[in-house]
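for the writeup, i need someone to sanity check this before i put it in the appendix. the sequnce is what the collaborator sent (i think, or maybe the updated version? ugh). structure was predicted straight from it, no edits. if anything looks off just tell me and ill rerun, i have time this weekend
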Amino acid sequence: MDKDGLITLTDKGMEIAERIYQRHKALTSFLIHLGVNEKTAREDACRMEHDISESSFDAICRHAQFQKPN
């Protein structure tokens, strides 16, 4: 974090951030597909993206026929 409060991510940090963002997008799409309204789907995906296990996320992706992000 610099003196202005701006955060710069390392390469590893950027990789993690991108993976979480891909999870967010996939989970949001999945919830919307299930009939959850977009606002709620985004909010719920935001909570889920950090805590869901890799195996559960993989299963959701397989079920929804999403390609798992790298």
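Residues 11-33 form the longest helix (23 residues). The two ends are 27 Å apart (CA to CA).
thx in advance!!
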